[in-house]
Amino acid sequence: AFVLVIKLFTRQSTADRTRAYLIATALSLAHGALFVQRLDAVLALALAGALYFWMTDRFALFACVLGLASAFKLTPMLLVLPLLATDRHILQHARICALAFAGGLAAGLLPMFAFSRNALLDLLRYHAERGLHCESTWATLYGILAGKASPAIVAFGSLNLEGTIPDLLAKIALPVTIILLTWLSYSLWKRRLNSSILMAEDAIRALL
């Protein structure tokens, strides 16, 4: 999203840059600790590279690096639908993008199988068993609605909330997120915008 905003700067008039600066400020506040924890710095670099290749219409490189980013954290896969909805040029290169994405994903995930045939399943089970991360959006909303402090435990390498409701929220977080992203992508797809500026703003909203 940062790369997208910077690209917008180079294309807009002085008057339009005010809005872009406001968006960039919001992004700065929203990124949190993405750049400083574990593999997140590598993930952030990969996502920045993918979005740069997207903005410069190098779709094969975009898809390959996005696949590599997805191998680091899996969650970048969630960007695919919103990006397809806001930039239909990607669909014109669907075959090469699919192959490049699969190649990047394989490059990141296949080495795990040298250590265990069940590596991917073990990874998915590991995350399925994790509790509700105390820094997640869901935990924040739960804390606000509960109106009181909740106990947290150190498990799976992070501070997680424990309890029946936090455990339930942790289980439904992914399916609910996918449903919301699908709805958002469908809404953006129906807009059929002709203005590149409006399309870029839609893309920023989708990425956030």
pLDDT below 50 for ≥5 consecutive residues: which ranges?
none
Oligomeric state of this protein: single chain
How many extended strands? Answer: 3
The span between the termini is 8 Å
Biggest β-sheet description: 3 strands, antiparallel
Q: Compute the gyration radius: what is it?
A: 19 Å
Would you tell me the overall average pLDDT? 78
Order of helices and strands: HHHHHHHHEHEEHH
Basic shape: globular
Fraction of residues in H or I helices = 55-70%
SSE class = mainly alpha
* Order of strands across the main sheet: 1-3-2
> Approximately what portion of the residues adopt beta-strand conformation?
under 5%
Individual helix count:
11
Note down, in words, how this protein is organized.
- By secondary structure, the protein is mainly α.
- Helix content is 70%, strand content 5%.
- The protein contains 11 helices and 3 strands, in the order ααααααααβαββαα.
- The termini are close together.
